[in-house]
Design a protein that fits this description.
The chain folds into two domains: 5-124 and 281-298, 3-Layer(aba) Sandwich (Rossmann fold), CATH 3.40.50; 125-278 and 310-329, Dihydrodipicolinate Reductase, domain 2 (2-Layer Sandwich), CATH 3.30.360.10. The protein contains nine helices and 14 strands. The chain has helices at 14-24, 39-50, 57-61, 78-87, 102-115, 129-139, 177-193, 280-292, 302-321; strands at residues 5-10, 29-35, 68-71, 91-95, 119-122, 146-154, 196-204, 215-222, 227-233, 239-246, 249-254, 259-264, 271-273, 325-326. A nine-stranded mixed sheet has the order 13-12-11-10-6-9-8-7-14. Strands 2-1-3-4-5 form a five-stranded parallel sheet, sandwiched between helices. The longest helix is centred in the last third of the chain and has 20 residues, at 302-321. The radius of gyration is 20 Å and the shape is globular. The mean pLDDT is 95.
Length: 331
Amino acid sequence: MSETVRLASVGLGWWGEILADGVEAGDEAEIVSCFSRTTKTRDAFATARCSRQAATFEDLLADDSVEGLLLATPHLSHADLIEAAAEAGKHVFVEKPFTLNVADGKRAIIAAEKAGVVLQVGHNKRRQVANRRLKTLIDGGELGTVVMVEATQTAPMALNFGNEYWRASRDESPLGSMTSLGVHMIDTLSYLMGPVARVFTFSNTILDKPAIDHVTTIVLEFESGQLGYLGTSLVAPPSVSITVRGTGGSAWNDEDGNKFYRQALTEKTREAESIEVIDTVADEISEFARSIRGDATPETGGAEGLEVIAVLATAIASSESGQAESVSDFR
């Protein structure tokens, strides 16, 4: 690749810092500017990361030295910011969820395609070596015929949410943790098993606060006929795992990609296998930089991000209707 790709960070909170760490972990991109609505946050980020900052988002878009943006802003802002960035000729890496509805996702995709800019969505979980291993086992038939998958992602973040925090808003976080955590697993399960056909959802508020759903479970029927389960919560201890069960054996990605297990059909217990652990954020940022230079194509582009949002929209509809809903009605 020729020269370092010049990026600007937009949205400088917790995950904005993680994305910046991902940039600094590699040598293909650099952060040259930043923007946040809060001056104090912007000053601190600029001092630590890039020395330069933009007073407004419009000023950032007018900066010819900036080639691409890393968006880690509130979910509802994504479509408008992508559209504006594309019109300004800036490539966009947007953190998941892509948008919160299919119409906005399609609008963002059209804007990027019209402008000829790279659009990448931050679904990094599928990049874990453990998930790549699951994919290889499934595609190679080493688990026999897969009959079901199970996924869990929980974290107790909401126990510290103030009601004024944007993530504590039902508008920003429909189905609570399904929006901020579960979409990772929707993408990964779609990567492993193919498109989802139908969804049935239960989503409840258990505690007094915050005023979002505290636990959500969805049952997935894939177009291939297999079934899956996905559970998420923002008030339970950290847990990230995926299990694939087949007629020839089972396999587990456990502890968020740090552990891997296999169990043959005739074995009563599972056995650990060694697995490599990589920095998945650095990996996706590297791909974004290479895509800007024309040396790669985003694995999770607009189309992949949109499919996740279609499943999320279906899950929301199922929660409201109390019955199974078809993803085809929302794509």
